[in-house]
Each structure stands twice: as structure tokens, then as C-alpha cells.
Amino acid sequence: MLGNWLAAYGAACLLLVAAAYHARRGDFLRKQAGRHPLRAWLLFWPYLAGYRLTWMLVRWRERRKPAFTQQAPGLWVGRRLSRIEAALLPPGCAVIDLSAELPESAALRGAGYRHFPLLDLQAPRPGQLRQVLAAVADVHGAGKPVYIHCAMGYSRSRLVARLYLRKLQTCRSRSIS
Prior knowledge:
Strand order of the largest sheet: 1-2-5-3-4
Strand content: 5-15%
Mean pLDDT: 91
Order of helices and strands: HHEEHEEHEH
Number of helices: 5
Shape: globular
Distance between the termini: 72 Å
């Protein structure tokens, strides 16, 4: 009997996740200040636990690779960092968190932390990209270091970094002309 209830609970959770993806709602987990509220954990724990396990497996598989890379002076890109990895970032580094699925490391939830919940494996909407790019430009343009990350460091963070650098290059080309 309990097994049936747990299976129904898991199925309902994943149906809600599917509905959020269908509606393109990256904020469905209500992550605030880098953390998920208790109600999100209660409702979505099978999804959140599975995502956390996936993140841990990716970290283990790529343990010999750097957790983040420098894309340009003052601009780093990668995955969600552990506390130890976060200490390797430059002091005063602003953090642009694109992951809706994982809580932020406590070491990175400081004053320079900004969260833009983008769904994994789904193209962000143009309005979402404009917001993220504006935030990166504000910080990086002021000469502060920036770390852009998503959960695994594969798609969302790299997309934003590429778009930002392309925009930056276009702006510099126009000012020289």
C-alpha cells in the first residue's frame, strides 16, 4: 500500500515538473537567495534528489577537469561549485546562477549573487537572455570578476558567456569604426 502511494507521489511530482517545462517556467521551484524553500523540497524531492545525484556523478566523472574556466579577462564559466571549489574564484567575484534545480553553495551566496532560473536542456526565451546579459554586463562592465554557472556547466552557462562575449565584441567593433 505504501509503495503505491510513493509511486503515485513520484509520478505526480514528475508530472508537475513536465508541466513546468511545457509552460517554460524556470521559476517553478521558487529558489530564493540560492536556496529552495521547504515547500519545494516537500513537493519536488524526487526530482531535486535525482538532479543532485546527477550533479554528484558529473563531478565525479569530471574530477580531473577544472570545475570552471576563464572565458575572458574577469569572466569565468562552469558548473555549480562545492565550497572548496568556490574558494578558487577571485575575491569579490559576482555570481550569476542559472540553475533552477540545485541550491547555491553557501560560499557563493554573498552580496554579488544573482539568480536567473533557466530550465536545463531548453532554449531560454529572448527576454530571459536579455536580463541575464544585462546583469553580466553591469558587473563585468564595472570591472568586477564574474562567475556564470548552471548546474553541470555544459549548456546554459556556456550559451550566456558566448552571447555576452559576442555582444561585447560587437560593441567594441562599433566603437572602433
